[in-house]
């Protein structure tokens, strides 16, 4: 009986994990865009940003100030997509709230920001706060200098990430300094792919993230749970 209960619990966890989805957002695909530029997704899903071309960032802002980094908001750092490689740089987080979240590219070229040219992204926008209104505000009110992002330096993403949904804390590299303890999202290096590193204008320091505010760090523990479930099923058969 104990064995059957344990097997049932593991199967339930495996079913929950299988129901989750990963939504891929292409960054810089065909221009200064996020593709798709808006996404509605439930708690538990993962949003993965793949950097396709040039040098961009995924930087959290607010609906009211589209091109200004949110205080303690998350930031991928600048990731350049190298030419002639099969594996694209990637950055991801797991959704743990239905709150509307807002992001932009903090890159500035010759005094003009990518954000002011409409390179913004919305997660779970609402009827009152739409993506179109967010983009229009970004293009009309970018502010002096165009956009505000992280500090100067080099962004480097690690494929290793750890997190704990139970404790509400996640730890990962690829988070620029000043981005820890985000309100609305906390970032993690992508654990499902092998990202590369890119050089840009934002420093990527390892930092502790506060989860439970919109997104939590992607953890490798899911693989362990599924492996354990498979082992138990194998013993039963």
TrEMBL record:
Keywords, in A-Z order: Signal
Signal sequence extent: 1-19
Residue ranges of the region described as Disordered: 183-206
CDD domains on file: Cupredoxin (cd00920)
Keyword Signal carried by entry: yes
Keyword Signal tagged: yes
InterPro entries found in the cross-reference section: Cupredoxin, Ser-rich/MCO-related
Composition bias type Low complexity, residue spans: 183-200
Protein name: Serine-threonine rich
Organism: Moniliophthora roreri (strain MCA 2997) (Cocoa frosty pod rot fungus)
